[in-house]
Amino acid sequence: MEGILWKWTNYWNGWQTRWFVLENGILSYYKSQDEASQGCKGSVKVSVCQINVNNIDNTRMDLVIPGQQHMYLRAPSPQDRQKWLVALGSAKACLESIVDSKVIGFEDSLSDKKSELHLYCDLLMQQVHAVKSAASQETGPDMEKLDEASSLLKSTCDTFIRTLEDIMKYTTTATGNITPFEIPVPNICKNMKTNLNRSLSQETR
Question: How crowded is the C-beta side of 151, counted as CA atoms within 13 Å?
Answer without folding.
Answer: 10
